[in-house]
Design goal:
Layout: E1 11-15, H1 18-21, H2 44-48, H3 72-86, E2 90-94, H4 97-100, H5 111-126, E3 130-136, H6 142-147, H7 155-171, E4 177-181, H8 191-195, H9 206-230, E5 235-241, E6 245-247, H10 252-275, H11 282-288, H12 300-308, E7 313-317, E8 322-324, E9 348-349, E10 355-356, H13 358-372, E11 376-380, H14 398-416, E12 421-424, E13 447-449, E14 461-463, H15 465-475
Parallel strand pairs: 1-2, 1-12, 2-3, 3-4, 4-5, 5-7, 6-8, 7-11, 11-12
Antiparallel strand pairs: 9-10, 13-14
Helix pairs in contact: 3-5, 7-9, 9-12, 13-14
Length: about 475
Amino acid sequence: MTKTIFPKDFLWGGATAANQLEGGYLEGGRGPSIDDALPGGKQRMAVVSSPDFDWTIDPDKYVYPNHSGIDFYHHYQEDIAMFAEMGFKVYRFSISWSRIFPQGDETEPNEAGLVFYDQVIDECLRHNIQPLITLHHYEMPLYLAKHYGGWKNKQLIEFFQRFTATVINRYGDRVKLFLTFNEINSAAHLPVLSQGLVHKTGADDPKNMFQAWHNQFVASAQAVKIAHEFDPAIKVGNMIIYSTSYAYNSDPVNQIANLEYNQDFNFYCADVQVRGEYPAYTDRYMASKGVKRSDLDITDEELALIKKYHVDFISFSYYMSTTTEVTGVSHETAEGNLLGGTKNPYLESSEWGWQIDPAGLRIALNELYGRYRVPLFIVENGLGAKDQVEADGRIFDDYRINYLKSHIQAIANALEDGVPVMGYTPWGCIDLVSASTGEMSKRYGFIYVDQDDQGHGTLARSKKKSFNWYQRVIATNGAQLDNEVDY
């Protein structure tokens, strides 16, 4: 075994979200969430972005895979035991807001929902796995989207404060790592998931996006305040999509466009949540969308709260880089994690068109630390791919191993650059429902789940080759990354 650059307390693990694996739809007093209204299939985002979409759940017309997920609700003990077998130090998961407050605006929580997460947390701790809890992972109660219009409504600040206080007071004695809003900057491209806005409730008006962001910034600051007052040892992070961006060429027009892309997408939300104030380019960004800061409902009291209670660390998802080209040159486009851009001719792409760029992760880590000087946590990274089950049940997913190996090496390079990285939790450590397409066939996990895109299957869990590989990566603290492993 060679010497490892990873610190001895590095948090290796995996990440999931309640809406994509939990199931238990309407069980234990749970109310429906916005994800329960998202149909399965490649047209999922086109459907919810259409002018006619009004959050109606129509099972005669669509399949809703989020309703069942992979039934973690009844399989959590088995799944966490498999995470422990891999050697997880940390497990990132989310708490479904509508399992705790079924409508979202109640004054008293649903005890059955609280008990369920008591059991999940205790099961993790029994296996010496530290929980990392996301408070808001695209899981707004459906009632709040339909009757309050989503996060553009300032009343949601109060409702989320009650939810956060309930969670911290219940679990803060056992959980010391929390994240506020998952991929908060994703609203720049698709406000339905993080802000609960659709066409009928103003998703097409950028003013609503900026107001919703402000309300979430206030709610995030309140979450930090609640956590730190409960226990100063609790650390709260934000969570953004980070997509390292390159100008397509040296044309200054593309260079400026790339500068603005980074400011508006990669940095805007983090600047507020980490630095505690709106950045200097805010008015330029808002003006580019036809919005003035004076259009928004922002108070001095809220700005003071944001300033005082900034997050302790930055967490982010990294799947791909993007390329900026605005001069009108003909080019191919790329797909991506809620974003696309110009196709980079130097990179390969996944089956879903996401461009694979491990070097971009090293750049991302250096850019973020250079800008903010706070610890960083990579809480999502992975390869969505179709897996082939062999006759003997084995799955040789070397393509997944190659993807993860190259990104882990990029983390090691960033550590050598002096960047403090807290941990690494690859996305979908167990197969789950894809957020972007609602498919099971787009698999990320180390653990295979026998279920198809229509929700049919035995739900049996089995180990892929990557399971054994990641087990060794953790056991050697990142020292052994080669593909040759017993399986």
